[in-house]
């Protein structure tokens, strides 16, 4: 009893103490606010009368009630909306007329004019064109060319010069756009002018040297920094060297350094480029070399800054903080270095490696402005293969192209359209149709009837729709972007081809992993013929190949658009004249875009010889075809074809396992 | 532990039995002591709190009680804004110094009330929005209360709306700020610039070099790369609840909802409505609303009344036309409704245009072309419209929806300029979260076939199987493209054999001794690796021929961003157990290659060692298993691509170890491996592995062709 009371007493006592503690402590805490810790931010006060504060704008006082008419362009300054008449470009899109150059013409100028004429923007008459292009004289001290008759205050004119200073002087320009090399930031009108790169004297006008980058990541032995020198060379500095005073020029006598004389390309991870205009020349060298440009407060606008996201390929730093910049470069994570390096190479190759690319990029930018909304999205400009090779007329949605599935997290559609080209003999390929229609992935069969004989009225019954299109009996017609081609994948076939359903199925599954490449069965390879001093190609079996025949190949339908609208006119004519050339052209085109070889898949029986298959006019003699590859190389300015040494087979291909376990059994037959 | 429990139970009994009064005495004593203890604790803090009593009152101040500052009529005025200012000319970067976190420090001046000589206030002390704005800065990582460490200064003088202030006096107030110094590194926020009659497009208050975050800049007043163009905040953002509406075609194709539209433009719009009565809706102010209805929230077409901003969700495109000012709060409402803004305001610098890609979310139409707007919009493909709708809503959510969002975006832009090497990328600014989540940016995106001359480095992980190791070294050294051999000696208890005992090979051989026997040592980015290509090979893989290895290297050159390996494996979804299962049978598919023999880019060593998500790396080291599965996950996740299995199936079990390779061991092995897959899939939050049905063989493999003319004849022997 007593113990019970004692216990309860203790319990009551401790409980009351606990209560007191619990109640008093919070009160104490309230009364004694936590002492502001030294250095801890005090913060903006929370006002007691916060509810009484008024909004910055009362709806009634919004000056919407007092609308103004549009202001006139100020002080001769122009922007796109005010100074360019888009209505002239309706319908045909951008058509460019370039005034002929009066007086002596330089090689580069001739090159520029030729590349405009041969491009899809070219126009022959100033009346038809919506952009008139005036080539400025190159010599900075040269005489100003007289203004052309159609000048019209410079409206819808583009004055183009590859030098930073040129005639006519700015005050004469009126409403004309200016495209010049490395314009100063102060005079550049964003969204109206176009900033060009400062090109060296001997810049190739077509093709151009590829980027110097041989590998993705920097070689461990390569110095961290190269510095642009005033005389035009580069000096490399080791990691330890921090000999850069404020103006960004580094001292001679610090660290392990060596001087590269002349215009050799720098060999370093980062290239430090000072602020002044002549240094813009270094910028392009760094890009080509895959050396990440570090620009110290450039006073000039970066080339094509309107569309190119330079933060992905270069670093624009403040020249007043050289040590911070250096520290930041040293600490830069490998992931970023890797990405920047690769982007320099992509940009160099896509937009800068030749005069022609620079000109086409300029026109493409202007065309994008004209298009307004349905133009290249930024993704297309800043990812391989670049905007010159991804036509906005095809689509503005990146997922429609074969190149951006990774970035968009999308996949190519899981069906294909078979496009069967029926040439001269005019035999309906019944067996082929059955084999193709048997594929579970086949969405439709299109027969492109290009024979003189009329097509038969009855076609075999197939599980998938079959459509007969009237062809034009031209080899290039084969790669026309027919509207009926609705799937991403096309299986291009010849009436003479023979395939089994297994082969088709497997090849398509492989294509889905490589939607940007061509996947084919029969191969050719190209080679350099020392004796003839030119390129040649052969259908002979070899350990490597660089082309797959389009008589049986999967590829993305976008390549039809590219073939028809982007290939130089001369090459398309060539295809019509020498039909066996289409294989070379198509493969070169795809290789020029992807920089990768096509893919070969196994071909069960060697039923069809890998001879030039398209021969409406009988077997083709070899010489024209050889010529084809050389003409192609000349038009491209380089040899785009890439060789591969591998073939993709089914996982269990010819393995010593029961055939019953294999998915593609018909491929197993010898 | 046991003892202490007992002790507690017997607690009361420990107090000696005594008389009640004694007990009371003891209890009182105990209480006093306790009270004393508490009091001591409290007084520890007390003196300070007395000292800083004025400080802790800060929280309770009223806006009306802020200190008053009298501005003499003749006090200095700042210069007008300098139009040629750029970051490298007018901004003092030295104040931002080197900062390991790459964050600028922002100081806010304390709030004052400014009056002129005659005591008339210069402006409203502070608006609700400006208070929100300063609170947002103060709550952010940018804030500092130490004026000497600050890189950017934000005056508490509210200039959001030019109409509410006296221009000259406000400028004088700015000029007397303690660190003004011609406005260097000062940031002003203004949303409604200019005033009647000509409505300048930038704040008229002379501000010298100060940066201006302004709503409604035109290209003539905007200093590219110096000023920041910001949205005009719409108070409706907070007032109205407008849930997201998915993209797709809507009832009206084009809608105009603004109330004050210049008569000329209204005429154009009315003409459009007349022409496309079904798909165009042009709204105006309501004239006959009953009392008490907030007219801001209503729009009318003849007698039909529409609720604003809800009506915006009924339209695909919404016209945002300039008024007297270029910047319109309607833009914010339109974006929020997922309606694609059609911006008709010549020379307007769109909000945050320095970083936001407005082409993805809006259509800009020149004022002159307003009458053609219908045709222009018709030319946009449907898929693009849907993407624009989604993008518009995302822009609102990320950068428009609150004063806080606007403020932080502004500071981030300035921060990115000052620390360009740590700047946010285009994708980080512009991609909506769904795209960010599903997109893959391959770190080796450049299509590039590395030169063969580079060769590869073979890395052999070994513990103590010296004999087998030496055989592997001898075999691998026969591969023509091998450029270096690295042995990772993972046995700390035993020294590697003497130099003289190692096989003599034609390439450099290096032995690296590790500090701990961990599987991840195989994937460490050793300085000794000079080539990009790495061949990871186990010390018992002696069955691969030189042709097979050389061919593997050639395949890697064509796919340098992938794992290229010999034994292939597959993951499968087990429907019964609802989880992933590991499969090593002879299947038609592969999704992994074992790293017991695989080529890969050395960058993946860096990723494995430093960027492996979650606790996978430690988990692998603790379980001494699945390092290869982890590598497969990592590479597939970062590149979005499948592995490449090379050459036909082979028996890969070492002949020496068949004795221990019993059936039960095999089964536990499979269970463990399956567990790994499930564990990794949960850490990655997705299943990154890609299943393919192909493997790589030499072009002429098994073809009817003379063997001696084949480049890689010795392939596929079991």
TrEMBL record, chain A:
Annotated organism of origin: Neovison vison (American mink)
Claim: Disulfide bond is one of the keywords in the record: yes
Pathway, per record: Protein modification; protein glycosylation
Residue ranges of domain Exostosin GT47 in the record: 105-331
Membrane topology type: Single-pass type II membrane protein
Enzyme Commission designation: 2.4.1.224
Role description: Glycosyltransferase required for the biosynthesis of heparan-sulfate (HS). Transfers N-acetyl-alpha-D-glucosamine to the nascent HS chain (GlcNAcT-II activity). Appears to lack GlcNAcT I and GlcAT-II activities.
GO cellular component entries: endoplasmic reticulum membrane
Domain spans labelled Glycosyl transferase: 416-653
Upper classification of the organism: Eukaryota, Metazoa, Chordata, Craniata, Vertebrata
Subcellular localization: Endoplasmic reticulum membrane
Residue ranges of the region described as Disordered: 236-262
Entry keyword set: Disulfide bond, Endoplasmic reticulum, Glycoprotein, Glycosyltransferase, Membrane, Signal-anchor, Transferase, Transmembrane, Transmembrane helix
Amino acid composition bias (Basic and acidic residues), ranges on this chain: 246-257
Reaction(s) the record says it catalyses: 3-O-{[(1->4)-beta-D-GlcA-(1->4)-alpha-D-GlcNAc](n)-(1->4)-beta-D-GlcA-(1->3)-beta-D-Gal-(1->3)-beta-D-Gal-(1->4)-beta-D-Xyl}-L-seryl-[protein] + UDP-N-acetyl-alpha-D-glucosamine = 3-O-{alpha-D-GlcNAc-[(1->4)-beta-D-GlcA-(1->4)-alpha-D-GlcNAc](n)-(1->4)-beta-D-GlcA-(1->3)-beta-D-Gal-(1->3)-beta-D-Gal-(1->4)-beta-D-Xyl}-L-seryl-[protein] + UDP + H(+)
Family as reported in the entry's similarity comment: Belongs to the glycosyltransferase 47 family.
GO biological process: heparan sulfate proteoglycan biosynthetic process
Any GO molecular function: glucuronosyl-N-acetylglucosaminyl-proteoglycan 4-alpha-N-acetylglucosaminyltransferase activity
Name of the protein: Exostosin-like 1
Gene name in the database record: EXTL1
Automatic annotation (TrEMBL), chain B:
Enzyme class: transferase
EC code: 2.4.1.224
Matches recorded under SUPFAM superfamilies: Nucleotide-diphospho-sugar transferases
Keyword set includes Cell membrane: no
Membrane topology: Single-pass type II membrane protein
Catalytic activity: 3-O-{[(1->4)-beta-D-GlcA-(1->4)-alpha-D-GlcNAc](n)-(1->4)-beta-D-GlcA-(1->3)-beta-D-Gal-(1->3)-beta-D-Gal-(1->4)-beta-D-Xyl}-L-seryl-[protein] + UDP-N-acetyl-alpha-D-glucosamine = 3-O-{alpha-D-GlcNAc-[(1->4)-beta-D-GlcA-(1->4)-alpha-D-GlcNAc](n)-(1->4)-beta-D-GlcA-(1->3)-beta-D-Gal-(1->3)-beta-D-Gal-(1->4)-beta-D-Xyl}-L-seryl-[protein] + UDP + H(+)
Major localization listed first in the record, in broad terms: endoplasmic reticulum
Biological process annotations from GO: cellular response to fibroblast growth factor stimulus; chondrocyte differentiation; endochondral bone morphogenesis; fluid transport; gene expression; glycosaminoglycan biosynthetic process; heart contraction; heparan sulfate proteoglycan biosynthetic process
Domain Glycosyl transferase, chain residue ranges per copy: 456-701
Locations listed in the record: Endoplasmic reticulum membrane; Golgi apparatus, cis-Golgi network membrane
GO terms for MF: glucuronosyl-N-acetylglucosaminyl-proteoglycan 4-alpha-N-acetylglucosaminyltransferase activity; metal ion binding; N-acetylglucosaminyl-proteoglycan 4-beta-glucuronosyltransferase activity; protein heterodimerization activity; protein homodimerization activity
Domain of life of the organism encoding this protein: Eukaryota
InterPro entries attached to this UniProt entry: Exostosin, Exostosin_GT47, GT64_dom, Nucleotide-diphossugar_trans
Pathway: Protein modification; protein glycosylation
Exostosin GT47 domain boundaries: 101-378
UniProt keyword list: Disulfide bond, Endoplasmic reticulum, Glycoprotein, Glycosyltransferase, Golgi apparatus, Manganese, Membrane, Metal-binding, Signal-anchor, Transferase, Transmembrane, Transmembrane helix
Protein function: Glycosyltransferase forming with EXT1 the heterodimeric heparan sulfate polymerase which catalyzes the elongation of the heparan sulfate glycan backbone. Glycan backbone extension consists in the alternating transfer of (1->4)-beta-D-GlcA and (1->4)-alpha-D-GlcNAc residues from their respective UDP-sugar donors.
Family: Belongs to the glycosyltransferase 47 family.
Assembly information from the UniProt record: Part of the heparan sulfate polymerase, a dimeric complex composed of EXT1 and EXT2. Could also form homooligomeric complexes. Interacts with NDST1. Interacts with GALNT5.
Name recorded for this polypeptide: Exostosin-2
Gene name for this UniProt entry: EXT2
């Amino acid at each position: 009893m007593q113990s019970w009371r004692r216990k309860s007493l203790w319990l009551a006592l401790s409980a009351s103490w606990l209560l007191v503690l619990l109640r008093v402590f919070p009160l104490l805490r309230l009364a004694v606010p936590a002492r502001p810790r030294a250095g801890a931010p005090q913060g903006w006060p929370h006002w007691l009368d916060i509810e009484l504060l008024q909004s910055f704008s009362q709806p009634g006082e919004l000056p919407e009630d007092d609308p103004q008419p549009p202001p006139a362009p100020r002080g001769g300054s122009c922007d796109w909306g005010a100074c360019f008449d888009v209505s002239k470009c309706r319908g045909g899109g951008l058509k460019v007329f370039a005034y002929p150059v009066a007086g002596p013409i330089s090689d580069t100028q001739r090159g520029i004019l030729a590349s405009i004429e041969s491009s899809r923007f070219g126009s022959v008459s100033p009346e038809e064109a919506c952009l008139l292009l005036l080539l400025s004289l190159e010599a900075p001290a040269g005489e100003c060319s007289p203004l052309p008759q159609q000048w019209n205050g410079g409206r819808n004119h583009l004055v183009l010069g590859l030098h930073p200073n040129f005639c006519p002087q700015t005050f004469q320009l009126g409403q004309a756009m200016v495209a010049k090399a490395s314009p100063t930031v102060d005079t550049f009108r964003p969204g109206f002018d176009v900033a060009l790169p400062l090109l060296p004297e001997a810049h190739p006008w077509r093709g151009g040297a590829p980027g110097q980058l041989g590998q993705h990541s920097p070689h461990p032995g390569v110095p961290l920094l190269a510095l642009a020198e005033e005389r035009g060379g580069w000096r490399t500095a080791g990691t330890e060297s921090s000999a850069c005073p404020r103006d960004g020029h580094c001292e001679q006598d610090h660290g392990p350094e060596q001087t590269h004389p002349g215009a050799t390309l720098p060999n370093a991870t980062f290239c430090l480029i000072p602020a002044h205009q002549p240094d813009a020349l270094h910028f392009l060298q760094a890009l080509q070399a895959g050396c990440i440009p570090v620009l110290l407060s450039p006073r000039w606008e970066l080339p094509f800054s309107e569309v190119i996201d330079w933060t992905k390929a270069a670093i624009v730093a403040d020249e007043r903080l050289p040590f911070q910049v250096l520290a930041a470069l040293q600490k830069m994570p490998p992931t970023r270095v890797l990405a920047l390096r690769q982007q320099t190479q992509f940009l160099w190759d896509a937009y800068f490696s030749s005069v022609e690319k620079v000109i086409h990029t300029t026109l493409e930018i202007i065309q994008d402005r004209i298009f307004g909304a349905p133009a290249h999205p930024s993704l297309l400009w800043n990812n391989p293969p670049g905007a010159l090779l991804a036509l906005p007329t095809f689509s503005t949605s990146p997922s429609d192209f074969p190149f951006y599935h990774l970035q968009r997290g999308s996949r190519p559609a899981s069906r294909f359209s078979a496009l069967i080209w029926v040439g001269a003999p005019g035999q309906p390929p019944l067996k082929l149709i059955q084999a193709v229609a048997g594929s579970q992935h086949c969405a439709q069969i299109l027969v492109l009837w290009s024979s003189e004989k009329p097509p038969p009225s009855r076609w075999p019954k197939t599980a998938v729709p079959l459509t007969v299109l009237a062809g034009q009996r031209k080899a290039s017609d084969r790669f026309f972007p027919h509207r009926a081609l609705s799937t991403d994948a096309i299986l291009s076939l010849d009436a003479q081809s023979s395939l089994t359903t297994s082969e088709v199925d497997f090849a398509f599954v492989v294509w889905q992993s490589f939607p940007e490449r061509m996947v084919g069965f029969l191969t050719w390879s190209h080679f350099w013929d020392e004796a003839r001093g030119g390129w040649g190609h052969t259908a002979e079996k070899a350990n490597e190949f660089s082309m797959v025949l389009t008589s049986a190949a999967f590829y993305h339908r976008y390549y039809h658009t590219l073939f028809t609208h982007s290939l130089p006119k001369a090459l398309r004519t060539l295809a019509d004249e020498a039909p066996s050339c289409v294989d070379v052209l198509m493969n070169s085109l795809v290789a020029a875009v992807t920089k990768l070889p096509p893919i070969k898949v196994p071909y069960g029986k060697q039923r069809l010889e890998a001879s030039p298959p398209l021969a409406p006019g009988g077997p083709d003699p070899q010489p024209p075809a050889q010529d084809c590859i050389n003409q192609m190389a000349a038009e491209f300015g380089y040899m785009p074809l890439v060789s591969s040494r591998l073939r993709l087979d089914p996982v269990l291909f010819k393995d010593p396992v029961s055939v019953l376990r294999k998915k593609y059994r018909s491929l197993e037959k010898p | 532990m046991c003892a202490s429990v007992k002790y507690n139970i017997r607690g009361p009994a420990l107090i000696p039995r005594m008389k009640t009064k004694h007990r009371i005495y003891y209890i009182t004593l105990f209480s006093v002591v306790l009270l004393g203890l508490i009091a001591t604790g409290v007084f520890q803090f007390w003196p300070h709190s007395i000292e800083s009593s004025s400080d802790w009152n800060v929280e309770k101040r009223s806006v009306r009680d802020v200190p008053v500052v009298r501005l003499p009529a003749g006090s200095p005025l700042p210069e007008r804004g300098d139009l040629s200012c750029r970051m490298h000319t007018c901004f003092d970067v030295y104040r931002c110094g080197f900062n390991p976190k790459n964050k600028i420090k922002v100081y806010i001046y304390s709030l004052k009330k400014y009056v002129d000589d005659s005591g008339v206030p210069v402006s409203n002390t502070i608006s609700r929005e400006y208070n929100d704005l300063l609170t947002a800065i103060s709550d952010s990582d940018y804030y500092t209360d130490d004026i000497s460490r600050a890189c950017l200064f934000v005056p508490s003088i509210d200039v959001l709306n030019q109409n509410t202030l006296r221009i000259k006096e406000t400028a004088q107030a700015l000029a007397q700020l303690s660190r003004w110094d011609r406005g260097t590194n000062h940031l002003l926020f203004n949303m409604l610039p200019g005033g009647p009659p000509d409505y300048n497009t930038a704040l008229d208050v002379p501000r010298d070099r100060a940066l201006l975050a302004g709503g409604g800049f035109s290209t003539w007043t905007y200093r590219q790369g110096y000023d920041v163009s910001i949205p005009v905040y719409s108070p409706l953002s907070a007032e109205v609840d407008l849930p997201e509406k998915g993209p797709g075609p809507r009832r009206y194709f084009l809608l105009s909802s603004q109330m004050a539209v210049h008569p000329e433009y209204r005429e154009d719009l009315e003409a459009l409505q007349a022409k496309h009565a079904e798909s165009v809706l042009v709204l105006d102010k309501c004239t006959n609303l009953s009392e008490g209805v907030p007219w801001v929230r209503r729009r009318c077409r003849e007698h039909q009344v529409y609720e604003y901003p809800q009506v915006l969700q009924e339209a695909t495109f919404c016209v945002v036309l300039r008024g007297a000012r270029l910047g319109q709060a309607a833009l914010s409402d339109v974006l929020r409704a997922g309606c694609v803004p059609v911006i008709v305001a010549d020379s307007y610098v769109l909000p945050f245009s320095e970083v936001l890609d407005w082409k993805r979310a809006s259509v800009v139409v020149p004022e002159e072309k307003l009458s053609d707007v219908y045709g222009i919009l018709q030319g946009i493909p449907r898929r693009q419209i849907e993407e624009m709708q989604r993008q518009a809503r995302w822009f609102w959510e990320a950068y428009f929806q609150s004063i806080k969002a606007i403020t932080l975006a502004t500071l981030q832009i300035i921060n990115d300029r000052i620390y360009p090497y740590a700047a946010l990328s285009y994708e980080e600014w512009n991609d909506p979260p769904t795209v960010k989540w599903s997109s893959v940016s391959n770190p080796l995106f450049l299509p590039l076939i590395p030169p063969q001359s580079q060769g590869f480095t073979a890395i052999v992980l070994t513990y103590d199987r010296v004999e087998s190791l030496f055989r592997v070294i001898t075999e691998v050294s026969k591969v023509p493209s091998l450029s270096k051999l690295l042995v990772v000696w993972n046995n700390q208890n035993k020294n590697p054999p003497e130099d003289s005992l190692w096989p003599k090979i034609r390439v450099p051989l290096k032995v690296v001794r590790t500090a701990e026997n961990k599987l991840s040592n195989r994937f460490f980015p050793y300085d000794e690796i000079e080539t990009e290509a790495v061949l990871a090979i186990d010390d018992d893989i002696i069955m691969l021929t030189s042709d097979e290895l050389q061919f593997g290297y050639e395949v890697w050159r064509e796919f340098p961003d992938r794992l290229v390996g010999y034994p292939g494996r597959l993951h499968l979804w087990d429907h019964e157990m609802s989880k992933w299962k590991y499969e090593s049978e002879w299947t038609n598919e592969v999704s992994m290659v074992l790293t017991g023999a695989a080529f890969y880019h050395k960058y993946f060593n860096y990723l494995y060692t430093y960027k492996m998500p979650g606790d996978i790396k430690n988990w692998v080291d603790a379980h001494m298993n699945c390092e290869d599965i982890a590598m497969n996950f990592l590479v597939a996740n970062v590149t979005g691509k499948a592995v490449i299995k090379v050459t036909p199936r082979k028996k890969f079990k070492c002949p020496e170890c068949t004795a221990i390779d019993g059936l039960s061991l095999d089964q536990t092995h499979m269970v463990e491996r399956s567990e790994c897959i499930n564990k990794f899939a949960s850490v990655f939050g997705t299943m990154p592995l890609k299943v393919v049905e192909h493997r790589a063989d030499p072009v002429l493999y098994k073809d009817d062709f003379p063997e001696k003319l084949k480049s890689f004849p010795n392939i596929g022997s079991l």
